[in-house]
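Could you join me in thinking about how sequence relates to backbone shape in a protein? We need material for that, and I hope you will provide a protein of your own picking. Label the sequence line and the structure token line clearly, so we can match residues to local backbone shapes. Would you write everything just below, so we can both look at the same thing?
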Amino acid sequence: MPLIDELIARLPAPVRRLVLRHHELIKFAMVGGTTFVFDLAVFYSLSLTILESKPVIAKVIAGVLATILSYILNREWAFKNRGGRERHHEALLFFLISGIGVVLQAAPLYIGNNVFDMRANLSVSEVVVVDFVLGYIIGNLLQMAFRFWALRKFAFPEELLHGGEAGSTDLHPSIADLNDEELGHA
């Protein structure tokens, strides 16, 4: 039995039902956590070196690279049982939605730096903190809420679920297949 199955099997029944009911949200959050760390590493690598005077450009580059990684992880894991659209149509919707998310995430950083000129009188450590709060706390909350809603609604809609209610790709899945699909293994 895979590790995730073991962990879920050991949860109390009410918690296990909650986890199984919200498995897409949990997977989306895990993908988000992974891409958050990736985005953070790229952003600070760029904004503290070659793009020191252009933090918004560094944020957009980091956001685009994280979006590509996010598409792969969401398509192949978090929303793998959704879809039914042609891959290029789904990808176009995903990247359009994510592009709006990148703008939403960069907006607080842009406003802070270009409207309020916050970087002018700050030390490097203060800039790091301000950039983190604006770009990663406020910006991520904005884009995450928008992307989860829009991806489920448009790129990976529920009405195009494959197979059974649990997302089975079989036309007539067995109980074991449905359980594996809910856990994300099949």
